[in-house]
Amino acid sequence: MATVVIIALLCTGAYAYWVSLPLPRTAGPRVSITSTPLQLSIGLDKTEYAATDNLTVYFSLRNISNKTVTLTEHVRYGLGLEPLDPVFRATTSAEGASTSEPNMINTLFHFHFRWVDSNGTVIYDTTSLFLYSALYDIVLAPDGYLNQTLHISIPGLFGIDGQSPRIEAYQISGMLYGVTISGSNELTIETPSIGFTIQ
Predict the structure, then answer these.
(1) How far apart are CA 91 and CA 70, in angstroms?
(2) 3-state DSSP helix/strand/coil percent for the chain, to nearest 5?
(3) What does pTM read for this prediction?
(4) Potential cystine with 41: which of 18, 20, 60, 86 (Cβ 3.0-4.6 Å)?
């Protein structure tokens, strides 16, 4: 009987932990960083990709506090917002997240990422992309979240510089770059890196 109770408690604990993880629940690896009151996460759909694949990256921002949080974005860029974009395509889901312009949640990509190779050479770093500037607030209710999925064409990304995808290991990390949280000083939050390979 005691064994059954222990197993039930372990299952309940594992379920509670799983439910507490930021959305979406990815099939591949994911990492998070908490900078109270926010939790920033990045995940992949898998860890091995062909040179002709799309790299699917999941980004999640969640208010883990019991108070409303205002996140002020200082610079934005139009990444993956055009339906026929050959390299990037982004989709958005949110709950308890709003902006002064209702459609802004869905029409901007709100995250940054850095992709490096096994030698630490930067393949792509969106913090260097300032296609236009904007100043706007994202208001996150308690337990509110903003999720975005970015599909990156591997051959398209490498083709920007006229290269072919190299068969090797890579790392990717997610960022909130140059933001303020409820009027604090400007800061950058970066997740740990996730490793993947192109074969």
Answers:
(1) 22
(2) 15, 50, 35
(3) 0.82
(4) 60
The third-level CATH classification (topology) of the domain covering 25-198 is Immunoglobulin-like (2.60.40)
Tell me phi and psi for residue 14, to 5 degrees.
-65, -40
Residue spans of the domains in the chain: they are 25-198
pLDDT truncated to tens, each residue of the chain (199 aa)? 555 445 544 444 443 444 344 445 667 999 999 999 999 999 999 999 999 999 999 999 999 999 999 998 865 555 545 555 778 888 899 999 998 877 788 878 889 999 999 999 998 888 876 555 667 889 999 999 999 999 999 998 888 777 788 899 999 999 998 888 987 888 899 999 999 999 9
